[in-house]
């Protein structure tokens, strides 16, 4: 679809920081699909009725995203928590994956160091 | 999921006057007008829905430049212009009153979270310079301390900014945030003539370790509570 015209200057596509408070990033809000869905889903005038007025079955198609946005706690209570072990979606899972990788690298480094030391001892004839 | 849909009008929002730009289609009824797109015939898969959501948001934000706008719930369709006009006539008083209430106001969303770690230690461990076991353990302890204190600093920063924003806003509403428990968010209905005060929000302690975003101006998504019933 073509983009809407008549956008004002304030609808910037890049974030800017306020002149007075550089700690706060300003955004016009169009940065990611998650940001857009976060504010448009289930919001606004509701029209209910019969013939010819329906709501598209968006809930089914965007189920994963809605679970993330709407109520992660409620989903967990229902036993739906697939995202907690997904490193792409969960900071805890990401931290665990990072720490595991660091530990593996550290063990490999120590094993190499031990291997080098044993090799030198054999050459020197020391026990 | 895909399906063939007959001609359908996807509603975006209701405004006080039809938009002046030729690209946007609208139907007028008395003091209100509804803005819509005609749906493509084969909409239904995930990419189409994502595009619909972006288009919906984009249209509503462009309408905001000309005056108040009532977002219609994403995914609402009408069969044709005649049905849409009849619906608007039926709800004209209610819709006009809601638009008057929102005139000169828009929504701003605050989001506060902990910034992801940056710097050489966040690079792949194999690329970092060799370090002793003691320094490795000390570094890990410092990182864990930062992770524990981060959410506390984010909470304090949110409370500080939330208090300042509530003082200048007409209303506030909790906002669902897409990043889980470490991020807090809230929406505020702010008068356009008070927006310059957003430049003078307080500076929270530890802000350099936080991800603080103020998103807006937006249509008043979180401050519209209208239900219209189509007659049987």
Q: What about the largest sheet of chain A?
A: 2 strands, antiparallel
Helix content percent band of chain A: 40-55%
Structural class of chain A: mainly alpha
Secondary structure class of chain B reads alpha+beta
Mean pLDDT of chain B: 81
First-to-last CA distance of chain A: 76 Å
Number of strands of chain B: 10
Mean pLDDT score of chain A, rounded? 62
Number of helical elements of chain A: 5
- Biggest sheet layout of chain B: 5 strands, antiparallel
Low-confidence parts of chain A = 1-16, 50-54, 58-71
Shape, principal axes of CA atoms of chain A: elongated
Assembly type of the chains comes to heterodimer
Strand content range of chain B: 25-35%
State the share of residues found in helices of chain B, binned by percent: 25-40%
Strand order of the largest sheet of chain A: 1-2
Question: Helices and strands of chain B, in N-to-C order?
Answer: EEEHEEHEHEEEE
- Percent of residues in β-strands of chain A: 5-15%
Query: Which two chains share the most extensive interface?
Result: A-B, 65 and 85 residues
Number of extended strands of chain A: 4
Which of globular, elongated, flat, extended, rod-shaped describes the shape of chain B?
elongated
What do these coordinates show?
The complex is a heterodimer of chains A (127) and B (232). With 127 residues, chain A is mainly alpha-helical. Chain A is built from 5 helices and 4 strands; from the N terminus they run ββαββαααα. A two-stranded antiparallel ribbon of chain A has the order 1-2. By secondary structure, chain B is an alpha+beta fold. Chain B has helices spanning 46-64, 81-102, 133-168, and strands at residues 9-15, 25-29, 32-38, 69-71, 76-78, 105-114, 171-174, 184-191, 210-218, 227-229. In chain B, the strands form 2 sheets. In chain B, strands 1, 2, 3, 4 and 5 form a 5-stranded antiparallel β-sheet that branches. A 4-stranded antiparallel β-sheet of chain B has the order 7-8-6-9. Chain B is elongated, with a radius of gyration of 23 Å. At the A-B interface, strand 2, helix 1, strand 3, strand 4 and helix 2 of A face strand 1, helix 1, strand 5, helix 2 and helix 3 of B. Strand 2 of chain A pairs parallel with strand 9 of chain B.
């Amino acid at each position: 679809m073509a983009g809407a015209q008549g956008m004002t200057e304030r609808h910037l596509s890049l974030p800017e920081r306020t002149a007075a408070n550089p700690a706060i990033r300003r955004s016009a809000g169009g940065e990611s699909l998650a940001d857009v869905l976060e504010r448009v889903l289930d919001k606004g005038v509701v029209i209910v009725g019969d013939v010819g007025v329906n709501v598209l079955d968006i809930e089914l198609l965007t189920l994963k995203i809605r679970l993330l946005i709407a109520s992660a706690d409620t989903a967990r209570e229902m036993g739906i928590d697939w995202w907690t072990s997904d490193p792409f979606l969960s900071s805890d899972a990401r931290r665990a994956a990072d720490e595991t990788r660091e530990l593996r690298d550290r063990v490999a480094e120590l094993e190499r160091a031990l291997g080098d030391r044993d090799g030198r001892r054999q050459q020197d004839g020391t026990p | 999921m895909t399906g063939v849909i007959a001609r359908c009008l996807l509603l975006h929002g209701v405004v006080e006057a039809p938009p002046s730009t030729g690209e946007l289609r609208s139907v007028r009824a008395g003091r209100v007008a509804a803005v819509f797109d005609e749906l493509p015939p084969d909409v239904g898969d995930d990419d189409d829905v994502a595009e619909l959501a972006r288009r919906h948001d984009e249209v509503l934000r462009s309408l905001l430049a000309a005056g108040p706008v009532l977002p219609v719930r994403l995914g609402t369709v009408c069969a044709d212009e005649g049905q849409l006009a009849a619906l608007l006539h039926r709800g004209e008083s209610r819709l006009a009153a809601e638009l008057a209430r929102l005139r000169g106001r828009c929504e701003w969303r605050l989001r506060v979270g902990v910034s992801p770690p940056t710097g050489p230690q966040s690079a792949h461990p194999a690329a970092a310079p060799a370090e002793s076991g003691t320094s490795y353990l000390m570094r890990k302890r410092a990182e864990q301390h930062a992770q524990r204190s981060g959410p506390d600093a984010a909470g304090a920063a949110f409370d500080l900014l939330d208090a300042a924003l509530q003082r200048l806003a007409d209303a506030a509403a909790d906002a669902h945030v897409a990043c889980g428990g470490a991020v807090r968010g809230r929406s505020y209905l702010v008068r356009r003539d008070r927006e310059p005060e957003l430049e003078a929000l307080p500076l929270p302690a530890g802000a350099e370790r936080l991800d603080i975003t103020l998103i807006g101006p937006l249509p008043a998504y979180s401050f519209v509570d209208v239900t219209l019933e189509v007659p049987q």
